[in-house]
Write a structure and sequence with these properties.
Layout (H helix, E strand, L loop, with lengths): L1 H17 L2 E6 L1 E2 L17 E5 H4 L7 E5 L2 E6 L9 E6 L6 E6 L9 E7 L2 E6 L9 H4 L3 E5 L2 E4 L3 E4 L4 E4 L12 E5 L5 E6 L2 E6 L5 E5 L2 H4 L4 H8 E5 L5 E5 L15
């Protein structure tokens, strides 16, 4: 018994000396109340991102996330533990939240999570919603930067970096991610426009308002689609002050290109 206890403490000592400390985080679903902008009470209570290839050139690459000397892994239900990530970037300036995409061979469809600190303790929040869309593989683009501080995650979430805020994008069909290509956003950057098979699906991720705008197939299938939309449609505010694209009432109206943001 005495030898067993000695061996146990010796293994802990050797593990701590090697610096190979590990912690597996059991993820929870995202909610609108989640906040990813904690201010650390101590300087060392922040996260760090390491390039796996820099540490081991013989590896296949990827990233790891650490809290001091402890490497953080993610576990979701019965899925295999995620040990490294194909994407990793901070989502707040305090470095207490990191957006990651696991490496599971599914490409852009691989799940996203936010590793975040709460009172200095690491947690994992899943940014994944079940989808049975037939075109998911075509329309899931992983991480898209629409501005320097605004990211779209697979047509389902907007991540506002620097201030660490996440918004769920209202789907056109609740059972599938938006089956369309993101093309434009309003001047206040809160209304997103997706080109879908029958027109433009517009959704304001702050208010949850949506608008379906029919557009001719000839425009949607054109190589100059965005330019044609810029010339024939303009941003108009509704009674709540939310901007949506609508067809110009006058074909002779001159549209200021600055009204649109790619």
């Amino acid at each position: 018994m005495k030898n067993t206890i000695i061996a146990f403490f010796l293994s802990i000592f050797l593990l701590s000396c090697s610096g190979k400390l590990e912690k597996t985080l059991v993820s929870k679903p995202f909610t609108d109340q989640d906040d990813f902008n904690e201010f650390p009470k101590y300087k060392d209570k922040i996260l760090s991102i390491e390039d796996v290839y820099d540490k081991n050139p013989d590896s296949s690459g990827g990233f790891s996330v650490k809290l001091k000397d402890t490497t953080l892994y993610i576990q979701e239900s019965s899925k295999p533990v995620a040990h490294k990530f194909r994407e990793a970037r901070f989502v707040n300036s305090q470095k207490t939240a990191v957006l990651v995409q696991i490496e599971d061979g599914a490409g852009d469809l691989s799940p996203f999570y936010i590793i975040t600190l709460k009172e200095g303790v690491p947690n994992a929040v899943a940014l994944n919603i079940a989808s049975n869309g037939k075109g998911d593989k075509d329309f899931a683009k992983g991480l898209q930067e629409i501005t320097r501080t605004t990211l779209v995650v697979n047509n389902d979430f907007v991540v506002a970096t620097v201030r660490g805020k996440v918004y769920q994008i209202k789907r056109k069909n609740p059972n599938e991610l938006i089956q369309g290509k993101f093309i434009l956003y309003s001047s206040d950057k809160t209304t997103l426009v997706f080109a879908v098979k029958d027109g433009l699906y517009q959704v304001n991720y702050m208010t949850g308002e949506t608008l379906n705008l029919p557009v001719p197939a000839s425009v949607l299938n054109s190589a100059t689609m965005v330019n044609e939309i810029q010339q024939n449609y303009s941003w108009q505010k509704n009674s709540r002050g939310t901007s949506f694209l609508k067809e110009n009432p006058d074909d002779d109206r001159i549209v200021d290109i600055s009204e649109f943001k790619k």
